[in-house]
């Protein structure tokens, strides 16, 4: 073998051996790839929900009215008897009464939410049982000083409900701040069993309020809510009551004075309420969506 040929073979072999570490280093070098997108769970409030609540109410009732009737004073001679004189007078006096009707409330609610970005709109209806009650005098003078009471009334808000719209802003994905308002309805009763006088009815009014609601997991949320409610006026009329008194030897000896008084009351009670309640809601459906 010629020297030149051997030299060429040796040179090629050396180059091949020298290339092995470089290739191995290239195979071991780190390779960079684009990271997959991050999936973020976002709470979605849209959907039907149902729940319950408990709270306390500070109600205020204001009763106004009129007591009216007639009074007849007749004088008789006891010998006979013989009517000497008879005078009839119309009577009228204002009636007034005030009372705080405080008590516990509790009930349930159902509704639906629509979420649009960070805004929420919804409808909610609720029905409440009530322990709000009070006993107060109805008098001819404001403040009911001694001697001015006509009768004593027992007041009670038996139940009430609302149908309201809700509009709110999501402070975070799971914390909702909202305002609410709409229709209110309820039944107020009042009576004085001593004079067999009672009134009350189911009335419709209005309510406004605000609240905060926070999601605690995928379906459950808790809320704190305030409502002002005005149920308007409840009216009633009593039956006529007649009282007859006899006074012998008036105005002088040998005479009898008979006084006949007939009275009836017409009253109107206005009721407003301040309500604070806490509640829990269960929302149907999956509330979490993926956001990339």
TrEMBL record:
Residues 1-25 form the signal peptide. InterPro entries: Beta-barrel_OMP (IPR027385), OMP-like (IPR051692), OMP/PagP_B-barrel (IPR011250). Residues 14-244 form the Outer membrane protein beta-barrel domain. Keywords: Cell outer membrane, Membrane, Signal. The keyword Signal applies. The keyword Signal applies. Belongs to the Omp25/RopB family. This is Outer membrane beta-barrel protein. The lineage of its organism: Bacteria, Pseudomonadati, Pseudomonadota, Alphaproteobacteria, Hyphomicrobiales.
């Amino acid at each position: 073998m010629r020297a030149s040929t051997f030299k060429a073979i040796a040179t090629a072999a050396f180059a091949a051996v020298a290339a092995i570490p470089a290739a191995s280093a290239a195979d071991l070098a780190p390779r960079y790839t684009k990271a997959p997108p991050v999936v973020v769970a976002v709470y979605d409030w849209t959907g039907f929900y149902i729940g319950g609540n408990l709270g306390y109410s500070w109600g205020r009732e204001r009763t106004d009215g009129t007591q009216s009737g007639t009074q007849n004073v007749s004088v008789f001679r006891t010998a006979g008897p013989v009517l000497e004189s008879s005078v009839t007078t119309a009577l009228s006096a204002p009636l007034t009464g005030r009372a705080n009707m405080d008590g516990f409330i509790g009930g349930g609610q159902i509704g639906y939410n629509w979420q649009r970005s960070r805004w929420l709109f919804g409808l909610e209806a609720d029905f409440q049982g009530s322990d709000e009650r009070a006993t107060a005098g109805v008098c001819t003078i404001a403040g009911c000083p001694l001697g001015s009471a006509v009768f004593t009334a027992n007041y009670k808000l038996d139940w009430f409900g609302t149908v309201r719209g809700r509009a709110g802003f999501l402070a975070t994905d799971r914390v909702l701040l909202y305002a609410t308002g709409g229709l209110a309805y309820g039944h107020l009763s009042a009576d004085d069993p001593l004079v067999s006088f009672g009134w009350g009815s189911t009335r419709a009014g209005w309510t406004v309020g605000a609240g905060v609601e926070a999601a605690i997991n995928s379906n459950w949320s808790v809320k704190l809510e305030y409502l002002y409610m005005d149920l308007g006026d409840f009216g009633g009329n009593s039956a006529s009551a007649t009282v007859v008194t006899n006074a012998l030897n008036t105005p002088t000896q040998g005479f009898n004075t008979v006084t006949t008084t007939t009275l009836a009351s017409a009253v109107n009670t206005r009721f407003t309420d301040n309500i604070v309640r806490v509640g829990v809601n269960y929302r149907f459906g999956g509330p979490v969506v993926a956001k990339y």
